[in-house]
Amino acid sequence: QVSGCFAGSTYTNDWGVRIESGSTVADSIATKHGFINMGQIGSLVGYYHFRHTTHPARSNVSAPDHTSRLQNETEVVWVEQQVLDAHAIKRIKPAPRDPKFS
Asked: What pTM, to 2 d.p., does this model score?
């Protein structure tokens, strides 16, 4: 099952992928589908961070085709495209200009 869409979400070019067969298999699957295996996610054994090389870093549209291709691999137990947390997206406002400090 492909992960659902979240209305108003900002999707990344990163996927969380669970592959219990080890990092060599994870590397192979990543390469086969145009991803880079960025490595294990923290101390979670069998969970890997994949980054797609051509998908935009931020997009208002998910990439179910990339997700489905990974999910169709028999070694893949779970996969989810990562979404930016709305609270993490902050607008940077320029500091006000003070003519005394120009």
From this structure: 0.78
